[in-house]
Amino acid sequence: MKLRKTGIMLIALCMIFFMVFEAAAQTANQGATLSMVKKRGYLIAGVNSSNTGWSYLKPDGTYEGFEIEFARAIATAIFNDPSKVQYRPLTSKERFAALQSGEIDVLIRTATHTLTRDTDLGLCFTTPYYYDGQSFLVRKDSGIKKLEDLDGATIAVLTGSTGEITLSDVMAAKGLKYKPLLFESLDELKNAFFSGRADAWTSDKSSLAATAATYPNASDYMTLDLTVSKEPLGMAVRHGDDSWYDLVQWVLNAMMFAEEKGITSANVSQIKASTKDPETQSFLGVKDQLGSLLGVSNDWAFNIIKKVGNYEEVFNKHLGPKTIFNIPRGLSKPWTKGGLMYSPPFK
């Protein structure tokens, strides 16, 4: 009996030791990513290299696109310099492994927030920077108008994407047969689809619209009036460093908040000098020193809006009405205009 009690006590002590050790390890990890990024002198962002309008590599070797602006904004918050970013091009299949392994600091690559990615992959997603949905791109003369018309079709899709899983699910639910044409590279998929190797291409509606708009015979194609999934696109970081997650999330919040308040790159300096609104003063670093709570300078949000712009500015620059894409904001409008974009208070 005495030995049994001793054994139970040893087990209990071991459990306490491991709990304390785990808590200490988690505490030590807090802020580790930001410290590493500061020490390195630049941010490493995982991105797409061929998603025109969203994130793509230009012939001159620089990256451009809507998603690229968020990486520039994070770099501005940390270094007051939007150029302090190294972009790491990743396929859909390899993007999450690159984040898990520490190869990149943040993933900004049309990644849909799902339960399994949040838990099984050990990732933390920000609130969505765009609310999307999956559909199909087809030739107008194909006769395909609805999902049932795809029975027996060859459908191109990126492997490792939510689109691959959703395609399987929706076709099975309808009892429809199809032949998946899988690709790791978006460029390879586009070449195959537009050369006639597939009857349809399924992906996020915004990506389909952006790609189709740049194709020489864009008028020959259409996106079906059909949405088969929810695709909330968020930036992703690793579990375990809440301080880093907080910074990435509040960078997005800052860009949404500025749009809501009508603060732009053109007027932010004047507003900072004249505003009497307490929350705007806190936001722009006039008072309260909120930046210090995130590990950056207190004028971090001012710098983002001045050097990168608010959400509406960067969206319109790359995807808005004056671009060839003209992608609708949809639910990705401010809550004040009937959308879902909503920043918590800056106080």
Summarize the structure in words.
The protein has 347 residues and is an alpha/beta fold. The chain folds into three domains: 2-30; 34-131 and 233-337, D-Maltodextrin-Binding Protein, domain 2 (3-Layer(aba) Sandwich); 134-229, Periplasmic binding protein-like II (D-Maltodextrin-Binding Protein, domain 2, 3-Layer(aba) Sandwich). 42% of the residues lie in helices and 16% in strands. It contains 14 helices and 15 strands. The protein has helices at residues 2-29, 32-40, 66-79, 95-100, 115-119, 162-174, 186-194, 205-214, 242-261, 268-274, 278-283, 291-294, 300-307, 311-318, and strands at 43-47, 50-51, 55-57, 63-64, 85-89, 106-107, 123-125, 130-132, 134-139, 153-158, 178-183, 200-204, 221-223, 231-233, 236-238. The protein has a five-stranded mixed sheet with strand order 11-10-12-9-13. It has a three-stranded parallel sheet with strand order 5-1-6. The protein has a three-stranded antiparallel sheet with strand order 2-3-4. It is globular and about 60 Å long. It starts with a helix and ends in a 29-residue tail after the last helix. Residues 12-28 have low confidence and may be disordered.
